[in-house]
Amino acid sequence: MVTETEKMKEMRAAMPSVRVFIPFSLGLMLIGWGSMAFLVFNTLPTLGMRWLFFFFGVLAVTGTAMPIVAFLNIRFPGKPPATVSVIVRQSLWIGAYFPALAWLRIGRVLTTGLAVIIAFCMIAIEVALRLRERSQWIPQPDDSGQANG
User: Fold this and answer.
1) How far apart are CA 64 and CA 91, in angstroms?
2) What are the sequence ranges of the domains in the chain?
3) Which of 68, 129, 130, 149 could form a disulfide with 139, with the two C-beta atoms 3.0–4.6 Å apart?
4) What confidence category does residue 135 fall into, taking pLDDT thresholds of 50, 70 and 90?
């Protein structure tokens, strides 16, 4: 009989380590933050440069959030365990959130309530996606022939 701690260890072993995301995360951070610093210090805020600012902002915040999201998914595993694509998707949600707030701030329409509503909507979409994945998940059978899930 498999105990609860053994199940947790098996689920954690199936999930990717935080180390898997470090090189990709560092690359995104270097490109994103470096390019944003270049844009801020060396260019005028024309239309094209603003779009580049938001693009590099998404890269920078996504790269910064990725190891944190990977750690949280490993620390608090779900059923099914988070895959690499889930961790990247969740990091992209965070990466898109902060440049969206910057865009709204430039237009002087950002309020605390609006920021909370946008965050709640993004979280609700991610929860719906995870629920869909959970409904399609089929647990792998263990050695005794029973599904461990």
Assistant:
1) 8
2) 4-136
3) 149
4) confident
Owner of token pair 């995104």: 28
Where b means 16+ CB within 10 Å and e means fewer, 54-87 reads: bebbbbbbbbbbbbebbeebbeebeebbbeeebb
Return phi, psi of residue 141, to 5°.
-70, 145
Hey, how many other C-beta atoms are within 10 angstroms of the C-beta on 99?
A: 20
Mean pLDDT of the chain: 88
CA-to-CA distance for 24 and 64, rounded, in angstroms?
A: 10
How far apart CA 100 and CA 55 sit, in angstroms, is: 10
Predicted confidence band at 17 (pLDDT cuts at 50, 70, 90)? confident
Quote the percentage of the chain above a pLDDT of 90: 68
Burial 103-139 (b: 16+ CB within 10 A, else e): eeeeeeebeeeebeebeeebeeeeeeebeebeeeeee
130: which residues sit within 8 A by CB, 6+ positions away? Answer: 78, 86
Q: How confident is the model over 32-61, as pLDDT tens digits?
A: 999 999 999 999 989 999 999 999 999 999
Distance CA 63, CA 22 (A): 9
Residue with tokens 């590099």: 56
